[in-house]
UniProtKB/TrEMBL annotation:
Gene3D superfamilies: Glycosidases, Phycobilisome linker domain
Bilayer-crossing regions: none
Protein name: lysozyme
Catalytic activity entry: Hydrolysis of (1->4)-beta-linkages between N-acetylmuramic acid and N-acetyl-D-glucosamine residues in a peptidoglycan and between N-acetyl-D-glucosamine residues in chitodextrins
Gene Ontology biological process: carbohydrate catabolic process; cell wall macromolecule catabolic process; defense response to bacterium; killing of cells of another organism; peptidoglycan catabolic process
Keywords annotated in UniProt: Antimicrobial, Bacteriolytic enzyme, Disulfide bond, Glycosidase, Hydrolase, Secreted
Gene Ontology CC, one term: extracellular region
PROSITE patterns: GLYCOSYL_HYDROL_F25_2
Lineage of source species: Bacteria, Bacillati, Actinomycetota, Actinomycetes, Micrococcales
Intracellular or extracellular location(s): Secreted
EC numbers for this chain: 3.2.1.17
SMART domains: Glyco_25
Its biological purpose: This enzyme has both lysozyme (acetylmuramidase) and diacetylmuramidase activities.
Length: 389
């Protein structure tokens, strides 16, 4: 179940006796509302043994994702490894204030700006609590307001759909999620507030609240590994080894890691920085032409023509190495090479044309880490791992 200020006097003992075992409780909205009922509701749920979590109702029209995330965490949207706390949750849905704020269902934001807002909120909550927040939404809103952005698969999905027949299930999920963690199936019923189902049994609920979720999407687990300090250090070491041919100084490793953990950069940023460094430049001849030739060799895996090298050398002189490296790194040919290597490593095969095109498109939006998370949370990878490969 989930409750808010609309249910100020929940009979928690009765809810427990009727079978409720978890609850999400509204704590904040936008950047200026904190529920006066939250503490009492949280204590009530705790007193009867429910697994409980806090949620924030977003209003992207009023302030940034970071501002609202900090407001949320400051007013109860935290997480604790106590065995009874669900991941913090973002409630993002149709704007209920279109009449007063003069916007639309998407709070007046374009699809790319909405995706960026959600990403900023998620990253800020994760940085402050240590866990990836869940996202509550409907498939139709997600399609309308984010363009069906597939890059949030590492966030547990709380999908809302109220069918006439429960056998119809939650329906088609938003892109990026192969499964749901929670399903809101009705606005009223046995329990106070909205009626929700967890995608698993009671024992799995306790695994999930600890966030190594047997019942949550595999993408949550894959995303957690990709975002872990251990994995990031491995990627940093590999970048230095593959690009500069040496190991990274310990101070450099920890410096990069600190910025990554704060959400400032990704492994893609580290690799492109190393490719555009003076060390790489000198290691490959120390001229703009030899530098262009090295990028063709290492990033595209092929030779260019002399006119190609001259063209890019001129752009190095005009825009600098960082700009040129970005053009190589983000071109579909280069991403396709990297996706192909990941297919070989994680799935043991080369991608088909349709799969390659899809992952390249995703790579343009979310970078290599997002592609790794996606591949390692796929049904194919899961089946391959179970077979011992």
């Amino acid at each position: 179940m989930d409750v808010s200020g609309w249910q100020p006097n929940v009979d928690w003992k009765t809810a427990w006796a009727d079978g409720a075992r978890f609850v999400y409780i509204k704590t904040t909205e936008s950047n200026d509302y904190a529920s006066s009922h939250f503490s009492r509701q949280w204590s009530g749920a705790t007193s009867v043994g429910m697994v409980r979590g806090a949620y924030h109702f977003a209003n992207p029209y009023e302030s940034t994702g970071a501002v609202q995330a900090n407001w949320f965490v400051d007013h109860g949207g935290t997480w604790s490894a106590d065995g009874r706390t669900l991941p913090p949750m973002l409630d993002i849905e149709y704007d209920p204030y279109t009449g007063s704020d003069g916007t639309n269902s998407c709070y007046g934001l374009s699809q790319p700006v909405m995706s960026a807002w959600i990403r900023e909120f998620s990253n800020t909550v994760q940085a402050r609590t240590g866990v990836v927040p869940a996202i509550y939404s409907t498939t139709n809103w997600w399609k309308l307001c984010t363009g069906n952005d597939p890059s949030f698969g590492s966030n547990p999905l709380f999908v809302a759909r109220w069918p006439e027949d429960l056998a119809d299930g939650p329906g088609t999920l938003p892109a990026g999620w192969g499964d749901f963690s929670l399903w809101q199936y009705a606005s009223a019923g046995t329990f106070p507030g909205d009626q929700d189902l967890f995608n698993g049994d009671y024992s799995k609920l306790h695994f999930w609240e600890g966030f190594l979720a047997t019942g949550s999407p595999r993408s949550s687990i894959a995303g957690g590994f990709v975002d872990s300090a251990e994995y990031r250090l491995l990627r940093i070491d590999a970048a230095y080894r593959d690009i500069l041919g040496r190991g990274a100084e310990e101070s450099g490793r920890q410096g990069w890691l600190g910025v990554m953990q704060n959400g400032g950069i990704t492994t893609d940023d580290i690799e492109t920085t190393l490719y555009s460094s003076e060390e790489y430049y000198l290691k490959h001849g120390g001229t703009d032409t030899s530098y262009a030739r090295a990028l063709y060799d290492t990033l595209l895996g092929r030779d260019g023509s002399q006119s190609d090298y001259a063209f890019w050398a001129a752009l190095v002189a005009q825009h600098g190495r960082a700009w040129v490296t970005a053009q190589f790194w983000n071109c579909t040919e280069t991403i396709g090479k990297r996706v192909g290597a990941m297919y070989d490593r994680y799935l043991g095969r080369q991608p088909d044309a349709g799969g390659l095109a899809g992952w390249v498109t995703l790579g343009l939006r979310v970078g290599d880490s997002g592609v790794r998370s996606g591949l390692t949370s796929s049904d194919e990878y899961f089946a391959r791992a179970q077979s011992g490969h």
